[in-house]
Specification:
By secondary structure, the chain is of the alpha+beta class. The chain has helices spanning 47-58, 62-75, 85-101, and strands at 35-40, 77-83, 107-112. It has a domain at 34-112: Ribosomal protein L7/L12, C-terminal domain/Adaptor protein ClpS (Ribosomal Protein L30, Chain: A, 2-Layer Sandwich). It is built from 3 helices and 3 strands; from the N terminus they run βααβαβ. Strands 2-1-3 form a 3-stranded antiparallel sheet. Helix 1 crosses helix 2 (62-75). The protein is elongated and about 65 Å long. 17% of the residues are buried. The structure holds L-tyrosinamide. The site of L-tyrosinamide (TYC) has 13 residues, from strand 1, helix 1 and helix 2. Residues 39-43, 45-47, 50, 69, 72-73, 106 line the site of L-tyrosinamide. Residues 31-109 form the Adaptor protein ClpS core domain. Belongs to the ClpS family. This is ATP-dependent Clp protease adapter protein ClpS. Keywords: Hydrolase, Protease.
Length: 113
């Protein structure tokens, strides 16, 4: 664990009480960066295909998937999940590959949160 401290004689034996000197430690926890996976609207991909993608790759119920598909359809883009870099990269690749295999122009991207 990395800590910040400047060691000074703490004459009264009470931590953190020497005038003007920081003596308390600050533990630094490591949190991995998170990545948003975004789904983009287009004019050609069928709505049912997008619903299926959200169910299949993002574990959503049919109702959740339908609702989020409509958000993308109306607003142009939506966050469909937040993941570690590796999981986000895999989801994007799975969606792009699935769309390509079905000859739909659906676009899926990721960005750092
Ligand atoms: N706009 C598409 C249509 O009207 C549906 C659609 C929704 C496409 C979401 C892509 O990410 C998307 N058929």
């Amino acid at each position: 664990m990395i800590t910040d401290h400047i060691m000074m004689a703490d004459k009264d034996d009470e931590p953190g009480t020497d005038a003007g000197v920081i003596t308390k430690t600050r533990p630094r926890t490591q949190r991995p960066p998170l990545y948003k996976v975004l789904l983009l609207n287009d004019d050609y991909t069928p709505m049912e295909f997008v619903v299926h993608v959200l169910e299949r790759f993002f574990g959503m119920s049919h109702a959740q998937a339908f609702e989020l598909m409509l958000v993308v359809h109306k607003k142009g883009v939506a966050v469909v999940g937040v993941f570690s870099f590796e999981v986000a990269e895999t989801k994007v690749a799975q969606v792009m590959d699935f769309a390509r295999r079905h000859q739909h122009p659906l676009q899926c991207t990721m960005e750092k949160e």
